[in-house]
Amino acid sequence: MNGKQVTRIVITIVFGTICCTAVGASFFGSKIFNIGLPFFQFISFGLVGSVAFPLFYFKRYRDAIYVLIMLFIINIIIANLTKVSFLIIHLLYFSSVIAAIFLFSKYFFNQIANLKISRPLVLAAILALFFVLATALQWVVFARDDTPFYILGNLPIGFLVGLGLGIGFEISEIFYSKG
Fold first, then answer.
1. What whole-number distance in Å separates Cα of residue 92 and Cα of residue 39?
2. What are phi and psi of 155, to 5 degrees?
3. What does the alpha-carbon distance between residue 26 and residue 87 come to, in Å, rounded to a whole number?
4. What is the pLDDT of residues 123-132, one digit of tens each?
5. What predicted TM-score, i.e. pTM, was given to this entire model?
6. Beta carbons within 10 angstroms of residue 126's beta carbon
7. Would you list the domain boundaries of the chain?
8. Distance (Å, rounded) from C-alpha 41 to C-alpha 24?
9. What's the number of CA atoms in the CB half-sphere (13 Å) around residue 42?
10. What single string gives the DSSP state of each residue in 80-135?
């Protein structure tokens, strides 16, 4: 990995995490800083998505696997996930973020380069879809009656996390191309 790639990765991580956190804070205020609430996803998945995107973009798959496994373990420790059910649920959403970012970086980011303003919306839609799928899978695994409520609740959170990440990725592209 050369110095330009490292610089671009760092810029993407910084802007992606900051923008995702800012989008979350603008909608949910200081609730995003409470680890016990689902709004903390703006910070944790903002960081995860911001790390995953440049590694997938530069086809550093082995590095992505190592770093994302470490981030998952750190997320488990920070969130103090002691119940197996919470661990499985977190794994579902963590995997959803990674799958959405992989799909976006591989099949959409360069293909819609001329439509820069729409790229954050595309990522937001993909991540919202993956959050809905993760919630539906959670319904199948745990057979909970309140899952339809969570589908409606997780859809906008997934959309906003994706929007924050997408805006951060676009700003990092602008910042990198000017610098």
1. 16
2. -60, -55
3. 28
4. 999 999 999 9
5. 0.91
6. 22
7. 3-178
8. 9
9. 26
10. T--SHHHHHHHHHHHHHHHHHHHHIIIIITTTTGGGGGGHHHHHHHHHHHHHHHHH
